[in-house]
Amino acid sequence: MVTLLCVLVVIAVSPDNVPMHIAATVGALVIVGTKCMSVQEAIRAIDWNCMLLVGSLTAISTGVTNSGLGDAVAQEILNILGDNPSPFMITTIIFFAAALLTQVMSNIPTIMLFLPIGISIAQTIGVSPYPVAMTITLAGAASYATPFAAPQNMMTVGWTQYKFVDFMKIGLPMLLVTYVVVVALQPIFLPY
């Protein structure tokens, strides 16, 4: 618990001075060094499927950026937003674009594909990329409205006999609640 708090404090206090991957590595070393967990237990705790998925999606995300696809999609979104978009419109368009895609595609790939697009939008209109990235992350995680939006949704379908419409009945209101919370709290905690 103490290690977790120390890592969170380091990340919260100086994210520019200590990159997150370094803080996480130091935290892992402290956990193993203080014998809270053995090296073998730490290795067994790694979800290798998730590591491979995120690693491969990082390559796809880089490809989206390097190929210019991210810029092309960003330009289309900017055409919708207009010349001088308000932070509310930026948040709304990006949130619903990512949230709709995450309903038909798993949330991690959605976030990884949308991040370069969002960063390109932020750079083009001259706003901070941090609120855009947070909007994409929260919208991508809002995978409530379809059974194939997230692995946990798929797992429940088999033994609960939920139908597609059951996910929509609960998921769409939850998606709207998530949107309202993001729009309300974004200007307070991560202003553009």
Radius of gyration: 19 Å
Quick one: overall form?
globular
What is the end-to-end distance? Answer: 33 Å
Low-confidence stretches: none
The helix/strand series, from N terminus to C terminus, equals: HHHHHHHHHH
Taking the sheet with the most strands, its summary is: none
**Total count of helical runs of at least 4 residues:** 10
What is the strand and helix layout of this fold?
Layout: H1 2-13, H2 20-33, H3 39-45, H4 48-67, H5 69-81, H6 87-104, H7 107-125, H8 129-141, H9 151-160, H10 164-189
Helix pairs in contact: 1-2, 4-7, 5-7, 6-7, 6-8, 6-10, 7-8, 8-10
Give a short overview.
The chain is mainly alpha-helical.
Explain what the structure shows.
The protein is an all-alpha fold. It has two domains: 1-46, no CATH class; 47-189, no CATH class. Helix content is 79%, strand content 0%. The chain has ten helices and no strands. It has helices at residues 2-13, 20-33, 39-45, 48-67, 69-81, 87-104, 107-125, 129-141, 151-160, 164-189. The two termini are 33 Å apart. The mean pLDDT is 81.
